[in-house]
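Researcher: Quick test of sequence recovery. Tokens follow.
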């Protein structure tokens, strides 16, 4: 697994804040495994907009419903920035548009992660089961975190 690359989406990043759920456990295991080897976690610039939006939504939720306080969110963002490598989106848009058209997806933001993984010849790990199903057998490198060993 040395020098391996993996791509992840914002949904997977959010799952680390719910380690008690099944998917959260897999997300924590994914990040732990990735950090224990020479593995580069790839994200597009757009990832940060999505992550901040998802965490903001969690900040507005009551704690007993999975809400997070500002300190927890800040620590998660700092940690994510330290363990990921951000790729400029400009180089991804054409490929993402083509993937969106081929998969009949309404949003480019979904396929930008696929484009990044495709360009880096690595797997995309996602917490979005619907997105993974949409990729179907056409894009075998798109994987659901629920299937992470």
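Model:
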């Amino acid at each position: 697994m040395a020098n391996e690359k993996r791509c992840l989406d914002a949904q997977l990043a959010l799952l680390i804040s719910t380690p008690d759920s099944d998917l959260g456990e897999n997300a924590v295991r994914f990040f732990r495994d990735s950090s224990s080897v020479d593995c580069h976690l790839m994200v597009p610039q757009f990832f940060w907009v999505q992550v901040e939006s998802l965490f903001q939504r969690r900040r507005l939720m009551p704690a007993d419903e999975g809400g997070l306080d500002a300190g927890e969110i800040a620590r998660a963002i700092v940690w994510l920035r330290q363990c990921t490598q951000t790729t400029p989106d400009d180089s991804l848009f054409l490929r993402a548009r083509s993937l969106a058209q081929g998969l009949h997806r309404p949003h480019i933001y979904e396929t930008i992660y696929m484009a990044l993984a495709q360009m880096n010849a690595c797997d995309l790990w996602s917490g979005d089961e619907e997105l993974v199903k949409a990729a179907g057998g056409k894009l075998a490198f798109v994987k659901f975190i629920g299937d992470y060993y």
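Residues 4-147 form a domain with the Rossmann fold fold (CATH 3.40.50.1010).
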